[in-house]
Amino acid sequence: MMDGLHPFQTEDTRARIPRAAFEAPTPKALLLVSELEDYTIAFANGLAQHVPVVLAVPRRQYAELAEWFDPAVDLRLLDWPRHRSPSNLAFLAQLVDLVRRERPDIIHALSNNTLWLNLVVPLWRGTPVITTVHDVNVHPGDTETSTLPGWATSLMARQSRNLIVHGEALRQRAAERFKKPLQRVHTLPHPTIIRYADLARRHGLRRQSEEAFTVLFFGRIYAYKGIDLLMRAEALVQNIPNLRIVIAGRGDDPWALRSNMGDPARYDVRHRFIPDRDVTQLFLDADLVALPYSEASQSGVLHIAAAFGKPVVATDVGELGTTIRKFRIGAVVPPNDAGAFAAALEALAADIDLRNRLGARSLAWAEGENAPAKVGAKAERLYRRIRAEHQHREAEA
């Protein structure tokens, strides 16, 4: 406590919030998001263990994923138009009506990658609006996010009184970019993505082969993901005779970087959309997961790997290095250092006991501190603080 102030007091109000405000009924949350399916499932399921949750998402993306939501999540599959559709105006009227009917205590946009939602945020001033910013800046080569105008993602963050980022290192950057007081930028961990590990248990899937030492690179393939670093590291590897590198995901063609490879025969490239069952098998078959990013905030791939108890080798960018070192779940090397990345691969390939220890800690983190329900509990406490502060401001107005 500083200057005798209440611990939940914000610097801009400089006044106490009555303790009774924090003992009010559990806040009801309306979650809005148009993408980020794996993150949304994990976050909504974890949050629903603690607060009433209404989740409004596009039918086209989420209808086939409905089975993965906890029954406690009130899932609303909406005919959510694409960004360029003029029917967005009618859709926004539906959202305004949804808020009026549901009367949430918190409206939480799970991403700032929106365009049309910017038009309705001013209509929701009676309800606290929070936006999660996954990437403070658009990553190099991220053609999906860059299709949105930069002003749209910035405006959504600026219109929201409170922001959430996935680590302390990102708070200052977000506060500066979106012109927020630092106390309005909060941290919540990215929860473990458990549905692929659950799918493995549901269908009794097992590792299919142990003949090779398999390094998995999974996810969207863009410049910032550092696939060229992984290839340059592979070219330096001399002490893993059975090395197999699997590259799986949509995006840029990995074979365009073939000149960086040491031995193309070591590679299994699956340049396409990967169905859920295949994703599950990829992680089951991996000995470790590679995160050779040149830039990052956090990584959903890390949170899938942890659910499978897989160690990682990652570059020290964004929150990756901090997270991996804190929980001792892998090796961290400097960005763009192919020699260090190759050495880390060789060290883990040579020491199965080390891999097992790292993997066990990774799984313990996934099922413990980083479990969706634990992240949901932190979100509930944050919601209570924001609602109490909002009510305090309303009372003084």
Automatic annotation (TrEMBL):
Q: Which residues form the Glycosyltransferase subfamily 4-like N-terminal domain?
A: 37-190
Q: Which UniProt keywords apply?
A: Glycosyltransferase, Transferase
Q: Molecular function (GO) terms listed?
A: glycosyltransferase activity
UniProt cross-references to InterPro entries, sorted A to Z = Glyco_trans_4-like_N (IPR028098)
Pfam family of the protein (one): Glyco_trans_1_4
Q: What is this protein called?
A: Glycosyltransferase involved in cell wall bisynthesis
